[in-house]
Amino acid sequence: MNLTKEQLTPGGGCISSDGRIFIAIWDGFKIIELDIDGNIVDEFMVPVPRPTSCALDVKEDKLFVTSAYEGLSSNKRKKYPLSGSIIEVGIRC
Length: 93
Hints:
Elements: E1 9-15, E2 21-26, E3 30-34, E4 40-45, E5 51-56, E6 62-67, H1 74-79, E7 86-90
Antiparallel strand pairs: 1-2, 2-3, 3-4, 5-6, 6-7
């Protein structure tokens, strides 16, 4: 996986029991899903600019995404009030 062209920075992530890989994209407003070969197979948009990491629930049909508040301008903090919280994202199994 090379995100250089998009100027995106991968953060933390998790792996499902069937080998799917989920990575938070800092300043990217999303979590990407990769296959075992590192190809992006899906993207899950989140309402925060800086997702930091994620974890799957027991059934592996939801991601819990942490996000950063620190370092955002006061304008961005107002525009994205969920920054700094944990967000639940439904995913396809």
